[in-house]
Amino acid sequence: MVRNEARRTALLDAAIDVLAEEGARGLTYRAIDAKAEVPAGTASNYFANRDELMSAVMMRVHIRLMPSDESVAESLSAPRDQALSLKFMHDIIKRADADKACYLAMMELRLEATRRPDLRASLTKTMAEGIEFNVAFNEESGLPGDRMAVMILYFAMTGFIYERLTLPDAAASAVDLDEFVEVLVDRAIG
């Protein structure tokens, strides 16, 4: 069978939506086909089993969560200071707000990884590579802060986004978004 890359991407995007809406238990070939509005059996022709599907979804999530090269280049035209680090943190929140389904799908993948050792190994590798990419990007771009500062920002932002997406009213009443991000960057980078 000839694989259509655009259709494969559409199926993965549909799988992300299903994960965000129904959770891992709702992620079936039938649900993906329905969400993608393709004939029944299409998803199973592209992904031989659930592990292959989950791995492909994980990679698609990472692609969708990355900022565009143009956006990064534009940001890096500014002075490499704490204000730029603050801008990058706000950009992460803007991307989370713009693509909530993707972040929710990532949370579902993380939860599913606690029950599926193969997915856990694959996701652990992908996330570790992502963390190292962020540390290297910070260093190579001449941004302020060392490895520990990047780790503090990563884990705090991950938790903050999790709260905003799962219990937005609680997060909003607990802290002002702009103030939180500003204080976080200030304390992490100092």
How do the strands and helices of this protein lay out in sequence?
Elements: H1 5-22, H2 29-36, H3 42-46, H4 50-65, H5 69-75, H6 82-98, H7 100-113, H8 117-140, H9 147-166, H10 168-174, H11 177-189
Helix pairs in contact: 1-2, 1-4, 1-7, 4-7, 4-8, 6-9, 6-11, 7-8, 7-9, 8-9, 9-10, 9-11
Helix content: over 70%
Largest sheet: none
- CATH-defined superfamily: Tetracycline Repressor, domain 2
The H/E string reads HHHHHHHHHHH
Q: So what's the oligomer here?
A: single chain
Q: What is the overall shape?
A: elongated
**What is the count of helical runs?**
11
Mean pLDDT: 94
The proportion of strand residues reads under 5%
Which class do the helix and strand fractions yield?
mainly alpha
Task: Kindly give the count of domains.
Answer: 1
Over all CA atoms, what is the radius of gyration? 18 Å
DNA-binding region: 28-47
GO molecular function: DNA-binding transcription factor activity; transcription cis-regulatory region binding
Pfam families: TetR_C_31, TetR_N
Organism: Lentzea albida
Textual characterization of the structure:
The chain is an all-alpha fold. The chain has one domain: Tetracycline Repressor, domain 2, CATH 1.10.357. 78% of the residues lie in helices and 0% in strands. The protein has eleven helices and no strands. The protein has helices at 5-22, 29-36, 42-46, 50-65, 69-75, 82-98, 100-113, 117-140, 147-166, 168-174, 177-189. Pfam families: TetR_C_31 (PF17940), TetR_N (PF00440). Residues 28-47 bind DNA.
